[in-house]
Amino acid sequence: MTTFSHTTDIAELQKIAHQLRLDVLEMLHLAGSGHIGGPFGMADIFAALYFSFLNTTPENSNNPERDYCLLSNGHICPIYYAALGRRGFFSVEEFKRLRKIDSLLQWHPKLSIPGVENSSWPLGHWLSQAVGIALAIQMKNKKWIMNNGGSSSKKRVVCCMSDGEHQEGQTWEAVMSAAKWNLGNLIAIMDYNGLQIEGTTDEIMPLGNIAQKYLTFGWEVIEIDGHDFTQILGALWSADTHEKPTMIIAKTVLGKWVSFMENNWGYHDWAGKPGDYERAIWELLK
Predict the structure, then answer these.
(1) Which of 133, 180, 193, 220 has the fewest Cβ atoms within 10 angstroms?
(2) For residue 69, what are the β-bridge partners?
């Protein structure tokens, strides 16, 4: 089965994102459960990260000079797995064993999976870990400057998050800490689809003007269409030049490219209702 390499060609990235969605659908169909709406909404982001932006490969996955990518909303891990498998971190044959007993790929990511940088479980905790990694890199770089002059290469720390987890208090503690330490090597990406497991974020716990909140807390903010590769890549490379932490608010569509799933919070999870797989695969392949 096909793996993909780094590319700057947008048509190729679109092709990769399409394959990642197919991979997620097949994984969940075989497993009989899992999360599908978020993975479909974030497929373009993960294609851009792993196949164009991040300096992280199967060959340098343990190299301290690599970039780091953490997944905070761990329930969307099928898209994380699809990107890592197609990038060559492990065999894509593992996709068939999602959520099986003793499988490498469980329903939240774990550190034992090649390429995975954090084990996750409760929402709202992993921006804190990303802040810790980015701060450690910054401190190491300052020590390098003192001992050697100049600076070492910039190692990026990317943290993918949901909009709903901004209802968690710990998220905002991490936001304040990142600004205090001027973590210009930290890029957070928010999956801003306005939906969570039981409805809209506005109904459950309104987020208000989330962009203004981040600006007030001392971050750079970039708002983009999370399905437009020109905007995605432009935001990532722009964030790479900032001296402060950057939040990329990616406006996404839950269940993107499958009509009956799009913007339907009922497809936060894959229920595997009769006919859903056949309808979804038909829409993706037509």
Answers:
(1) 180
(2) 158
At 64, is the pLDDT very low, low, confident or very high (cuts 50, 70, 90)?
confident
Closest residue by Cα to residue 31 from 283, 278, 277, 254? 277
Sequence-ordered list of residues with C-beta below 8 angstroms from that of 124, at least 6 positions apart, any chain: 72, 165, 166, 167, 168, 169, 170, 171
C-alpha torsion angle, residues 121, 126, 128, 130 (rounded to 10): 140
Neighbours of 202 (CB within 10 A): 11
Reply yes or no on domain 10-285 having CATH 3.40.50.150.
Answer: no
Decide if 278 contacts 253 (C-beta within 8 A).
Answer: no
Angstrom CA distances, 70 to 22, 143, 177, 188, 221, stand at 23, 25, 17, 9, 19
Q: Which pair of tokens denotes residue 155?
A: 């190692």
Q: Which residues, in sequence order, are bridge partners of residue 187?
A: 158, 246
Per-residue pLDDT, 65:
86
- Which of 68, 276, 38 is closest to 164 using CA atoms? 38
For residue 212, pLDDT over 90 is answered with: yes
- Assess contact for 84 and 114: CB atoms under 8 A: yes
Reading the block at residue 131, the tokens are 């802040």
- In sign, the C-alpha dihedral spanning 89, 94, 98, 102 is negative
249, β-bridge pairs: 190, 223
pLDDT at 1 over 60: no
Give whole-number Cα distances, 150 to 59, 66, 145, 147, 242, in Å. 27, 19, 5, 9, 18
How far does Cα 3 stand from its chain's mean position? 19
**73 phi, psi to nearest 5 deg:** -85, 75
